Structures are given as C-alpha cells and as structure tokens.
Amino acid sequence: MARPRHAESRVGIPSMSADEVYSRVRKIVSDQLGVEDDKVTPEANFQNDLGADSLDTVELVMAFEEEFDLEIPDEDAEGIATVQDAVNYILSKKAA
C-alpha cells in the first residue's frame, strides 16, 4: 500500500482563506520588491506606489505562479496592478 504524500508548502488555494492568500501575496511583494511590509497594502499599486518596473512586475507574476501553482497568461497579468488585484485573481482561478 502506497504511503500518502504530504502536501508541499504550496498548498492548494481552495483550503486557503482570502486572508491567507493576502498574507502570502504580501510577503512575495515585500521580498521581491524589497519594500517594508507596512507599505504593501491591498490598494498599493506595484509600479506607482511600490516602485516596481516592468521586469519587477514580470518577476512578481512568476513568483505568484510558483507560490500558488497556477499559470497567469500575459493578458491576465497586465490587469494585475495592485496587491488586491493579485489576491482577487488568485482566488478566482483557484475557485474555478
């Protein structure tokens, strides 16, 4: 009989609350952009408020894809401008 596999640290989103997703997104943004946690608010715009350039935003999307085990097409990524946009997108894709 095969032993059950333990979940990796990247747990599927259906079992995660919006607060948990926000917390993980906030940590990714803070780490990737090197900004203080208190600046990473739901309404914070990656470029205008947090100083991200176009390469930074691509790297953020890649980090979200890896952390939450999903694929974000370029046309969808263009619509993710704020922390809350990222949280909403991740929740909508994992709920589908």
Structural account:
With 96 residues, the chain is mostly helical. The chain has a single domain, classed as Non-ribosomal Peptide Synthetase Peptidyl Carrier Protein, Chain A (Orthogonal Bundle), CATH 1.10.1200.10. Helix content is 50%, strand content 0%. The protein contains 4 helices and no strands. It has helices at residues 18-33, 54-68, 74-77, 83-95. The longest helix is centred in the first third of the chain and has 16 residues, at 18-33. The chain is globular. The protein starts with 17 loop residues before the first helix and ends with a helix. Residues 1-12 have low confidence and may be disordered.
Question: Nutshell version of this structure?
Answer:
The protein has four helices and no strands.
The tally of strands reads: 0
- Which spans have pLDDT < 50 for at least 5 consecutive residues? 1-12
CATH class: Mainly Alpha
Summed over residues and divided by their number, the pLDDT gives a mean of: 88
Structural class given helices, strands, pairing? mainly alpha
Helix content range of the residues, please?
40-55%
List keywords for this structure.
96 residues, mainly alpha, Non-ribosomal Peptide Synthetase Peptidyl Carrier Protein, Chain A, 4 helices, globular, disordered N terminus
Secondary-structure blueprint:
Layout: H1 18-33, H2 54-68, H3 74-77, H4 83-95
Helix pairs in contact: 1-2, 1-4
